[in-house]
Each structure stands twice: as structure tokens, then as C-alpha cells.
Amino acid sequence: MRRMQMILFFFFQFATLITSAQQPETIRDYINTYKELAIAEMQRTGVPAAITLAQGIHETMAGTSSLVQQSNNHFGIKCKTGWTGASVSHDDDARGECFRKYPAAEDSYRDHSDFLKKSPRYASLFSLDPTDYTGWAMGLKKAGYATNPRYPQVLIKLVEDYGLQEYTLIALGKSPAEEKDHTVPPADTTVYKGIGGFKSMGKLFQPKEEKDRVNFIYPKGEFRINYSRVVWMRKGISFLSVAQQYGIPLSRLFEFNELEEAESAEKDQLVFLQRKRRTGAEAYYTVLPGESLHDIAQKQGIRLESLLELNRLKNNDRPAPGESLSLRKKAAAKPKLLLKENVPLYSVEKRITGH
Q1: What is the CATH number assigned to the segment(s) 2-181?
Q2: Confidence band, pLDDT 50/70/90 cuts, at residue 22
Q3: What are phi and psi of 126, to 5 degrees?
Q4: N or C: which end of the chain has fewer CB within 10 A?
Q5: What is the per-residue DSSP string for 41-54?
């Protein structure tokens, strides 16, 4: 038994040295490749982007490990009971252990976030301030995420050495300079969670009631919703100026956002810089008062035609507030509608189209 303990100790020490020995350029390449996924997952579930990136760097040796190259598994998550997806065999604590295999990196990032969010073992972490990377690192070790006794120190050092906290702040809609202020939004302010819609980043961000879920904060500049590039465009800004700024043909900008051509925005709105996805990041979305299908498609980063098809809706339908819309699979039934008469979507949304 003592011999096995010594072997495991030296193995963990070796693993730590391997991670720290990775060339800074390799680690920075990893960060630049996956930072948007980490930000998007924080906006969806609340797992700090800094922690996600630090774990990814450590678990994959900055993307160079044989496990990640075979399986796209960035977080060393083993099969465990109930896993029905693909898998690979990899030597870890024992020989030939079963590890989850993913079609792409984004699937691994999503599963990692869900793994933490849905497990009671990690529930206490989500009561921490999302900028408290030290608390998160220590909490992961305490909850049993890793057996390496130095696991928290490894993560903390990666966060501090490579400025990973910046990506947590971006996900919160802050600039890195704001970290020094240690300020947070008031308790009745909702932070818009890009991928997941209106969700809180913890107790400090909980809206008091459903009616309070109308004020939200978007990051400045380009960010991601459902892994798609998007910006928050202010009323009166020229669509042409946005298209030119991001190097996109004007016609494509209107196409990506299912908008009729107009000179400028008639309201504050989300504008996607690439085609949205066919499915959402979350399984369902609850309709809020005053929302059109176009509003929901933009908030969730899903194509309007896909939203219609998944929910058996027509372009002129208006789901009633409180109805649940499916974002990932065909709904069993059409949701209840707000309007009895057929009114074209683009006629209802005059502020979008200008007609």
C-alpha cells in the first residue's frame, strides 16, 4: 500500500511539472483557441472562465496530451455510471480507465460545465463570487475533482501567470480595470447570460421577481451567444458602420439577423456577426411578456427558421408568456399563442424592420 502511495505521489508531482514545463507559447495558443468557449460556458452556467481555462490547460498539458488528442476530452472526465456516449481507454490512476470521448472541443466544454453545475458535490462553489478563483480552486479539490494535493495551487498559478481572470471579467460584462473596484451590480440587476438567457451568476445577481428580468447587461464589443459572434448595437447606429467595422457584407449582416434592410437601428438590439446555430445551448426557453419569436431567436443565438420548426410555429405566431419553447429537439405540441389573429412577425415588430 505504501509503495502505491509513493508511486501516486511521484506521478502527481510529475504531472504538475509537465504542466508547468509547457512552453508559454503553447499555453497562450491554447488560451486563444478556447477562451471564447470558456466565456460562453460561464455565461451559460456560471463556471468561471478563468477556472475552466486553467483546468483545460492543466488537464490537457495545454492541448498536447494524448487523451485530448484521442478524445477531445479537455477536463479528464471519466465515463462514470450513466455515461452512454463514446469513450476511450486511457491509463490514469489505473491502467485502461474509461474516459469520455467528444465529437468536438465545445462538447467537452459543455459537458464539463454541466458536470459541475448539476452535481451536488460542487453546489457550494456556485455561491462563491465568480471572480474568487482561489475559492473555486480550493473548492474543486475539497469536493474531490482531483486527487493531486497541489491541484488548487496549479490552477491558481495558471490563472495569475496568464491573466485568465480577464476572461471571467469579460463574461461578467466588465473590463479588466474594474477588478480593482471590487464592485458588483445591485441585487435586482440581471446579468444577461449569453447562451443561457436570463440566468444569475450567483446570489448577488438574482432578480427579485420575474418582472425584474428585463434589465440586463451585455459586454462591450464582440462577445458570444451560443458560440456565435455577436455585438450589442445601440439605437441610431448605422448597420453599414457595423458591417464595415467587422468586415461583413451589409447584406449578410441583415441575413444573419433575419432583418429587413434599414439604415440604422431603431432600438438597442443584438446583432450577430455570423450565421446563428440551428439549435440552442439550453434545452428550453420560457417566453417573457412582450417577446416576439425574433427576440427569442436573437437572445438564444438560434436561427428563427429553426425556432419555428422545432416548436411547430409559423412566422406570424406569438407564443404566450410563460410558454416553454424547445431549443434542441422537436416539441411534442405547439405552444399556446398570445394572438388569435394572424399578424406577420415583421409587421408586429415595427421597431425591427421599420415597416
Answers
A1: 1.10.530.10
A2: low
A3: -80, 0
A4: N
A5: HHHHH---HHHHHH
